[in-house]
Prior knowledge:
Blueprint: E1 2-5, H1 13-23, H2 30-46, E2 50-56, H3 58-61, H4 74-78, E3 80-89, E4 91-92, H5 102-130, E5 133-135, E6 139-141, H6 145-151, H7 166-169, E7 170-171, E8 174-182, H8 183-191
Helix pairs in contact: 1-5, 2-5
Amino acid sequence: MKKIKKFKLKISPYLVEKKLKEKSYAEILPEIKKIISEKIEEVEKLLLPATVYETFKPEQIFPRLSPKGFFSDDSEKDNCVSLTIYVIVLGEKTKFMKGDQAEIYQAIIESAQEQARRFVYRLVNEEAKKENYLLGMNVDLPIDEKTRKIFKLIDFNRLGLGKENIIGEQIGFCGGFIPWLSKKKIKTKKSD
């Protein structure tokens, strides 16, 4: 199991603006851009990102979670030799403001989550390369009763978080898995 705390996130104003446009803002005016930049600066000072991840064999995970629908195709599922399960938290909810600019804060948090996911993916990819494997696509898992069985495999206490109340007390709580794929099986399929 790997644990990393307080890694640096640099949130892109462009990505926050893009998220706002997707949700409700038809146009991002210069005054909104200024507010976004100020809020990003504020949030970056308050973030305490942390992640914990661990790699498991598929037979440890698949019985707990139906893999159908999480892989792009059956060959990816069949080529899966390991799965890295991860959880990310960005900080405590109580540190963030609500109110008038809740949508802006939400877009900033979502952008930070995406950046944190990419960070974890890069770390896992380095490990996979050392062992001569490829990685499949990062799969986000919804936080519900089914996936709690998966996330309980990871020791949240290593992050200083309680297993039961983590979702309600943290912002940016997200998780997922990253499949490790065998290079040999993929090469064989391509040559056929």
